Amino acid sequence: MGQSALRSSLDGQVENAKMLGLHLSSTTNHPADERRSVKRCWECQRTLPIERFQVDRSRRDGLCAICKECARVRRAAYREKNREKENALARVWAKRHRPYLRVQGRLYYQANSARLGPMKLAARNNRKARIRGAGGTHTAVEWQALCEFYGNVCLCCRRERPLARDHVIPVSKGGGSGIENLQPLCASCNSKKGDRAIDFRLRANNFMSSP
Ligand SMILES: [Zn+2]
Ligand SMILES: [Zn+2]
User: Fold this and answer.
1) Cα of 139 to ligand 2 centre, how many Å?
2) Residue 29 predicted with pLDDT over 50
3) Which ligand is closest to the CA of 158, given by its number?
4) What is the pLDDT of residues 133-156, one digit of tens each?
5) Is 76 in the same domain as 135?
6) What is the pLDDT of residues 40-76, one digit of tens each?
7) Cα(45) to centroid(ligand 2), Å
8) Pairing, β 163-167 against β 182-186
9) How far is the CA of 24 from the centre of ligand 1 (A)?
């Protein structure tokens, strides 16, 4: 590099410094620290303090492009969309596997009524009802008493078969699991009744009170 070239290079650096100085002096109305303390959100276009932005190290300024508030709205919308999608898929699956589920449910019930015994079964049924928001509970003793009251037979076919707790008003229609909404039915009558509200206790009571 020649003498003149070096000089012009130095001049250039001085020029650069001058420009920098000019630039810095032109921003005295907006000090650098103040400019860094706020940021415009891409979504809502508001200029907000940087505390209102999530840290994102992959970005040049280390902050998310949209403010926390907008990010929250986006997340909620995404979750909502996904939930609908998942629920729809679950419904399709359940519809397609209905016969399978029916058999599984029956097998589960048979396996568990033997394993769990009446106490735990009552607790399980109560829990299920609570979860569905139907409300109402009963104890194993109440259930046994009810079965004995009706002669330990199915109130529909009157046969002596293993008895299931049938909800007079089905749980799907808002019926609770209180003892006042239960009647003993065998598994086959219980499944035939489906989700209809049929009170077999009325007929049984008439039958019992007739001479
Ligand atoms: Zn925003
Ligand atoms: Zn029956």
Assistant:
1) 23
2) no
3) 2
4) 667 788 888 888 888 888 899 999
5) no
6) 999 999 999 999 999 999 999 999 999 999 999 998 8
7) 68
8) antiparallel
9) 30
Q: Ligand 2 centre and the CA of 39: distance in Å?
A: 72
pTM of the model: 0.40
Range of the domain at 149: 112-209
Asked whether residue 131 falls in the same domain as residue 44, the answer is no
**Ligand index nearest the alpha carbon of residue 40:** 1
Question: What is the Å distance from ligand 2's center to 77 Cα?
Answer: 49
Handedness of CA 140, 144, 145, 146 (dihedral sign): positive
Nearest ligand to the CA atom of 72: 1
